[in-house]
């Protein structure tokens, strides 16, 4: 031991560069029997059970107090739910002209022929048109699978 110390293996400078700004708490607790977790309560692996164990029994008070409605069921069951039939991205009337280029809008505002541009929502990935916002006072043909009642009223006027 003495020889290693003399040769510099226990050199203080190397120890300082290796350590963190503050030594870990375990260093201080070495030799203390319970290691800071108490003799009576004891630090055991999973004292309350793993995961969501005991939500209906020994963790019931916490769940009812801080997470009401977490336990139980709501609604009807839908066996073999397929999301595809319900896929219906929507767009509002106010955003309809963003599907078409600015040149198209300028062209049809200046034209006096009475032609109307066709805005194909399905091609742009929108299935349903909703009625929020205002359309410019231009005739327009909108292609989509579904329309809300308000949308139809606004497009026809």
Structure in a nutshell:
The chain has helices spanning 2-7, 12-18, 25-29, 60-66, 102-110, 149-156; strands at 90-92, 118-120, 128-130, 141-143, 146-147. By secondary structure, the chain is an alpha/beta fold. The chain is elongated.
Helix-and-strand structural type: alpha/beta
What value does the average pLDDT take? 89
- List the total number of helices: 6
Assembly type of the chains comes to single chain
Question: Hey, roughly how much beta strand do the residues contain?
Answer: 5-15%
Enumerate the strands of the largest sheet in spatial order, edge to edge or round the barrel: 1-3-5
Count of extended strands: 5
Query: What does the radius of gyration come to?
Result: 35 Å
The separation of the N and C termini measures 97 Å
The low-confidence parts are none
- How would a textbook summarize the main sheet? 3 strands, parallel
Report the helical percentage: 25-40%
H-E order: HHHHEHEEEEH
Shape descriptor = elongated
SSE blueprint and pairings:
Layout: H1 2-7, H2 12-18, H3 25-29, H4 60-66, E1 90-92, H5 102-110, E2 118-120, E3 128-130, E4 141-143, E5 146-147, H6 149-156
Parallel strand pairs: 1-3, 2-4, 3-5
């Amino acid at each position: 031991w003495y020889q290693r110390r003399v040769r510099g293996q226990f050199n203080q400078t190397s120890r300082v560069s290796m350590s963190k700004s503050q030594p870990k708490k375990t260093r201080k607790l070495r030799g203390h029997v319970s290691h800071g977790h108490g003799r009576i309560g004891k630090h055991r692996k999973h004292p309350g059970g793993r995961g969501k164990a005991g939500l209906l029994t020994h963790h019931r008070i916490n769940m009812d107090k801080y997470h009401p409605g977490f336990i139980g069921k709501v609604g009807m069951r839908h066996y073999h739910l397929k999301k595809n039939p319900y896929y219906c991205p929507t767009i509002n009337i106010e955003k309809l002209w963003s599907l078409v280029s600015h040149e198209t809008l300028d062209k049809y505002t200046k034209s006096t022929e009475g032609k109307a541009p066709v805005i194909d929502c399905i091609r742009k990935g929108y299935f349903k048109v909703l009625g929020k916002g205002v359309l410019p006072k231009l005739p327009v043909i909108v292609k989509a699978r579904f329309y809300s009642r308000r949308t139809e009223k606004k497009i026809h006027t």
